[in-house]
């Protein structure tokens, strides 16, 4: 089981270059970064975790920050947790994702989700009740552009003509009933449920929930949905985000077959973040990669 890290990276926290170097030096598997384009001041949507952290309004662009991280590391995986796909032009986003994956040697894991802030989404023209269908459609547009041969797609919320589009993501296509799944490893965030698990099995590679509550009940349901969709059981990837680690927790997650744990770092300056990293480093060495699986870029 791999151990990665995440934090709300802002213009006031540790810089991505310093953080990435420190994570790689300590043996962490990856750096995952979240996304908010802006936080409208007039907001009725409650923050899922209680009081809205002020860092949400100061987040750096994850793709720009991860590009800096990629440039100063060789093995560190790069991830988003999550990309708000509905708030992007899919053709432009497909180019950003493929470019980062190409330049990093295939180190990108694309965490995607549907968002929680109705006002933020509305400013991007997203109709809340159809946001899940919108994300599904935009992922299909991107996968058409990532396909090995020019491929068209026409959906309810968007379309693209068969096009030459390069670079291509590094990861090999994964087989599905509906045709090969192109692009970097893609994990969908969100709470457990039949609808989410059906979407994961249809157009993703796995699940990226916050924390690990209830996994003993939910993971079998996800694996059943995955098998019912005809997906290879070995291809399912589960990463837990924003984990406050303890030895007991990590042992429990590993027993359940979790592939990656993403520990939560504070949204602080260098001194604070490095102090916490010093304390978390021991968890990396408690959970080495399984035999035969190193921390190479294409395996992250």
From TrEMBL:
Transmembrane segments annotated in the record for this chain: none
Annotated signal sequence range: none
Domain of life: Bacteria
Organism annotation: Streptomyces durmitorensis
Residue ranges occupied by any Luciferase-like domain in the UniProt entry: 17-242
Gene3D superfamilies: Luciferase-like domain (3.20.20.30)
Alphabetized SUPFAM superfamilies for the sequence: Bacterial luciferase-like
Protein name: LLM class F420-dependent oxidoreductase
């Amino acid at each position: 089981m791999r151990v990665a890290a995440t934090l709300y990276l802002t213009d006031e926290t540790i810089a991505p270059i310093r953080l990435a170097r420190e994570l790689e030096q300590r043996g962490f598997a990856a750096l995952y970064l979240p996304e908010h384009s802006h936080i409208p001041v007039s907001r009725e949507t409650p923050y899922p975790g209680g009081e809205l952290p002020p860092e949400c309004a100061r987040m750096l662009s994850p793709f720009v920050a991860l590009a800096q991280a990629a440039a100063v590391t060789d093995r560190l995986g790069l991830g988003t947790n999550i990309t708000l796909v509905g708030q992007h032009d899919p053709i432009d986003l497909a180019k950003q994702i493929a470019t980062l994956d190409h330049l990093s040697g295939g180190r990108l894991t694309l965490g995607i989700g549907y968002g929680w802030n109705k006002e933020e989404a509305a400013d991007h023209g997203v109709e809340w009740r159809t946001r899940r269908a919108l994300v599904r459609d935009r992922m299909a547009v991107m996968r058409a552009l990532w396909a090995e041969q020019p491929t068209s797609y026409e959906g309810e919320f968007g379309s693209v003509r068969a096009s030459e589009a390069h670079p291509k993501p590094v990861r090999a296509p994964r087989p599905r009933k509906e045709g090969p799944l192109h692009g970097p490893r893609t994990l969908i965030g969100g709470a457990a449920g039949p609808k989410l698990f059906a979407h994961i099995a249809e157009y993703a590679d796995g699940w990226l929930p916050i924390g690990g509550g209830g996994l003993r009940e939910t993971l079998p349901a996800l694996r059943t949905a995955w098998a019912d969709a005809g997906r290879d059981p070995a291809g399912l990837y589960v990463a837990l985000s924003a984990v406050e680690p303890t030895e007991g927790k990590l042992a429990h997650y590993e027993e359940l077959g979790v592939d990656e744990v993403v520990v939560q770092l504070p949204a602080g300056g260098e001194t604070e973040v490095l102090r916490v990293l010093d304390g978390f480093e021991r968890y990396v060495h408690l959970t080495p990669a399984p035999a035969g699986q190193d921390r190479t870029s294409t395996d992250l």
